[in-house]
Amino acid sequence: MSEIYDVVIVGSGIAGAVLAATLTQAGKRVLMLEAGLTAGAALTPQAAYENYQHYVQNFYSKANKATNGPYPDIPDAPSPDVLEIQAKTPYDTGYLVQEGPLPFASDCLRGPGGTTLHWLGNVPRMLPNDFKMHSLYGQGVDWPISYEDLKPYYEMAENEIGVSGSVSAQVGPDMNRTNYGADYEFPMHEIPQSYQDQQWIKNTQGLKVWLKGKEYTITCVSMPQGRNSVPNTAYTYGAVQWDAQAQKLVMPKTRVPYQVVGSVWDPYTGERCEGNASCVPICPVQAKYNALKTLKKCVQKNLSIRTQAVASQLNIDANSKEITGIVYKKYAHPNSSEYTQEVAQGKIYVLAASALENPKLLLASNAANSSDQVGRNLMDHLVMLTWGLFPEKIYPYRGPGCTTYIPSFRDGEFRRDFAAWISPIDNWGWSWPTFAPGTDVSNALAANIFGEQLRTTIADTVPRQALLHFECEQTPDPNNRITIDERYKDHLGNYRPVIHYDATDYLRKSFAAAKEVSDQIFAANGIEDHTVYNPTEADYVTWHGRGYTFRGAGHIVGTHRMGDKPNNSVVNPQQRTWDHPNLYLIGCGNMPTLGTSNPTLTMVALTYMAAENILKQLAE
Amino acid sequence: MTNPHLVHARPNSLRTRHRLIAPLSDLHICGSIKSVESLRRHLQTAIELEHSTIPPYLCALYSIDATTNAFAYQTIQSVVMEEMLHMILACNILNALGGRPSIDHPHFIPEYPTYLPHSNQAFKVPLEKFSKHTLHTFLKIEQPAPAAAPPEANHYQTIGQFYKALKHAINYLDAVTPGGIFTGDPSRQVLPEHYYGGGGKLIAVYDLDDANQAIDEIVGQGEGIDGTIFDTDSVMFGEEVEYAHYFKYNEILHERRYAPTDSAKLPPTGPAVAVNWQAVSDMQTNPKMADFPVGSPTWQAMHEFNRTYMTLLRALHDACNGAPASIATAIPQMYALKYQALALMQIPNGKGHMTGPSFEYIRL
Lengths: 620, 364
Fold this sequence. Notes:
Oligomer: heterodimer
Shape of chain B: globular
Mean pLDDT of chain B: 85
Shape of chain A: globular
CATH class of chain A: Alpha Beta
Number of helices of chain A: 13
CATH architecture of chain A: 3-Layer(bba) Sandwich
CATH superfamily of chain B: Ferritin, core subunit, four-helix bundle
Largest sheet of chain A: 8 strands, antiparallel
Number of strands of chain B: 2
Helix content of chain A: 10-25%
């Protein structure tokens, strides 16, 4: 136990795994603490296969296919769960203590591999303007770094995640070839756009819509995604390496085509997306990227993973403010409140436990909070869904969850007034808003429809179900925050996150605008609108007398943000805490604003940046 | 993929790998293959030989459950995938030699029970459910050749001897033929970009070096390298330790993994693994469509299965005859094949067993 590692990392999700792989490949010795079960961290083929099949079987057997359904629910290291959400706050019946006024609607997964086990895998980059929200639009804050600063690290992230996509297709507001560079390609070709997307595209591509007296053109773009496809032989980068001489991370050019990374149990399973359409909550063949793949790339002799080890406290030297150890509680049985307490020690400490757990741990340790920003500025994409029936069958569920998105409202002058959004075209019928097709069957049965007629009814409606999706950008608000409270602790005596949360007018205006756009797209496609926002639902909000329900995107960000001044941010542009010389934070909590991208790609890019800084600090 | 020469230059095409089989010093030994035409015919046999093992392996695989028999299922599945890879590798070699693989002709699928094509006819291979008896048959198929076993182009005792003969012939004929024998159209190669999910890295074959590597891959995965239990992938590609087919099957039979120090000549002594010999679908041996009245539901289900199998073979045939990208259309057929086989194994045959897939040629 007394061994001192170069770096101690809390969390084995994508941020922790990317950091551990980079550091161990550079010869550094890393200790990783993981709160979840030992079985989930198995990387030998047989054990990894058996554990993952267990997840898959859980998925098959559960009636509700929600995000965390396949994965173990551990009382000693609980995860939030979207199924726990209730309309009326406050309540504390789930893992999250929801103080309201609105319940926070997203979850994540605590366990080896983290939330990448259930993520969708959409990986569009942020737009250059997203980094300058305050100076351009008077909203939120500017980042202390620019898109150009982050660009080389985006390339590293796309290499590691293994992005399939078409660079030349990425055209929209503030988005074109120059965002990527003239010769840049993704490692793999785009996943073919699904049949239903092609039906959408027919009447949506180039459609003019009106919003607040202004005309906008709707376009449909192929979605870059972290799932395997055919390697692009024009892609010229090899894997990320530490160049000790130059003191930087590099991606050497190579003529070796990109090596597709299959499942953790067998390199020849999951080499291509098979279109299982269950990406969320689980890809049965691991064609979708998950962080276990990166964990497996670590130089294993340089990595110790301590599982069933829940970090609970940072030890801090009162004079130097250096972290001297991380206290963790190691449990033998996930349901028992018994544990042994141990201390992990390293030269540098990194919290990579998610934007919910990182601030909780900092608050519990009175750490890194001289700015009073720890836990504040909690953000998510607020997802407004609209759904209807296409006139003809479009056959959802063919292909992965999303192969096309509408970028048209990702950026523009309107961002002064209301939130920007990205519109993925979902490939899952009405399953998200109505739990279709199960509810279609139960509703039909309730209407005394059965037998042949039932089959006809289902066959007529389910293949026509269309869903549109508006992910609206939440801006930082200090009152949307995570706190801790002595009254709320888990099984092991660790704090549970206490959440204070609301949606500002900036977002409510955005819902109203998005619904107007949705109406015009539906009309152009002849879609019969079946959208219902019910006042009894959780996260039902109103704007100018009309009601809208939003859902969580699972994009939990902002709670220990990066900034250029110690008085307004938790970490500096190097992602080191302003307050502690050997404590780094990584993950979505560092993001000052969210933009309209699914945040994982940006977060991984930031993590490579952090890895470089950590390696430099270790060299000093 | 538009430029095969780019791929050709890739380090993945194994320029730096070790030679795994003893160098061929006796180039004058040509054996019974004395012309390129004969060599092409023998490569067609190699393709048929690789294919002939797939239906028996699939019957055993489909008769067990992936969850109750995880080890056996994964093991057999991994072998099947490698046999598919070998089949395509053999096609790539044949195409490199200017030949034309024929995968959809009426006699491509052997009539089970069958001798291995061109073998010494020492044993017959049936279509059977998973059992110890079946595993013994599989061990005979994958029996490693003794290191000193002579090459045998015809009437071979082990598959390794057959490939040794092919390798000798390729090296000999390439050396004595002005301009060499690798005259095939490079655009007919199935490339690693086209092929995935199946048991190893596909090697595009443009020259002698590639052909030797491809044969080493086939023999190494099947039988092991030079008397070890390891397969070529762990030696050639630096992958996780994987054992050659014979030893994989031996692990199932003995319900025990090999320890890294185990000898190829002795049974495995590593950790025990669970194999459930009871949870097996009771498929009849060597089912035939002719066992059932033409047009009956069972006959129709078998016919439908065979139609799917022929469609799959047709896609592979096209892929190996100038349209490599059409291999993608074989993938959905492979899924359909599995589901249809599982359904057949649920249909009683009227004689106390279940029916099963018959793998018979039908005209599409």
